[in-house]
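Box 4.2: Ligand-aware structure prediction
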Amino acid sequence: MSHSATSRMQEHIGDPVSESPPVAREQLEEIFQDIQADMRYDHELNGCLNCGICTATCPAAHYYDFSPREIVQLLWTENLEGIYDAMQEKIWSCAQCYTCAARCPFSNSPGGLIMLMRETAIKHGMESAKNVLRPFSRVMLKLISTGNQLSPDMITADGFADWGPNVAKVDAPLEILRMAIPMPTLHTTKTAWEVNLKTSVELYTIWEETGVLDSLETIDENLFDVILDIMDEKRDDYEDWLDDQDDD
Ligand code: SF4
Ligand code: SF4
């Protein structure tokens, strides 16, 4: 654990986040229980030597004040204040590359554990989760309303300037790469974004049943309302289509 993180935790025992009001013990316990209750938890955490191999191999640890070793230790020692503290910022530094999982001598998956903490942060509507996900609201709108976001014709040098010179490597054989995608309907935005009504309605049911929409409502109520309207509209369209089939 970095010196600054240790100092912060020592300063705020019983008051884990200096900028926020103190968090009730019951809430800290509830958050930890939610992380632990996930069926993946016991697969991802098998003990911890505190050896630091995960942090040594972690690309994010090179650039941020972030250490997967520290996160795993917090979970392994059931440090509820520290876990809550890490969920305010540090867990969002992970790139989910899972290099750590391939190297850990205990077969832990620090990246997988961090994913569980992120999902729990969303479930509890933490400000950190709202702040991290806010810039992706347009992506989520497109994904949820169409089931797709990216189609191959969007991958162009102009569209992905932030890839730097490497985008040229993608751009060059693009026509061939597109042919490798099995479903012709996914080749362009025009076709990829025209999702079959039945498929859309089935996706909505999956998102409802799996709690995706509950999470969305917790994180972004406005976006949730917009998406509900889209879902209602498409469900009506689908019912009309079914009625037309019956009439025929
Ligand atoms: S999670 Fe694994 S690699 Fe990381 S400190 Fe613990 S035992 Fe070492
Ligand atoms: S999954 Fe996250 S914690 Fe693990 S090596 Fe990649 S960036 Fe680091």
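In the box above, the bound molecule is iron/sulfur cluster. Residues 58-60, 68, 94-100, 110-111, 114 surround iron/sulfur cluster (ligand 2) (CB under 6 Å).
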